[in-house]
Design a protein that fits this description.
This protein is mostly helical. The protein has a domain at 12-54. 46% of the residues lie in helices and 6% in strands. Helix 1 (16-29) packs across helix 2 (33-43).
Length: 69
């Protein structure tokens, strides 16, 4: 992630409602979770822990054992 330029004013998203609206808009533009993070931090000042709580976890698919006959 690039260092934020302190001279560029960015909107601050503190409300979970506003964060979720911004995330929904960015999901349509971005192809991956990393791109969502990059776009979000380039355009807004946010609480990263709040954003992480709203973004779904990418859990791996479970590997099922073969059944016994």
């Amino acid at each position: 992630m690039l260092n934020a330029d302190p001279l560029v004013a960015r909107p601050t998203l503190t409300s979970p409602n506003h964060l979720s609206i911004a995330l929904d808009g960015l999901r349509r533009k971005a192809g991956s979770k990393a791109e969502i993070w990059q776009l979000l931090t380039q355009h807004y000042t946010v609480d990263l822990d709040a954003v992480a709580a709203l973004m779904p976890n990418e859990d791996p698919e479970p590997t099922w054992l073969a059944t016994r006959d």
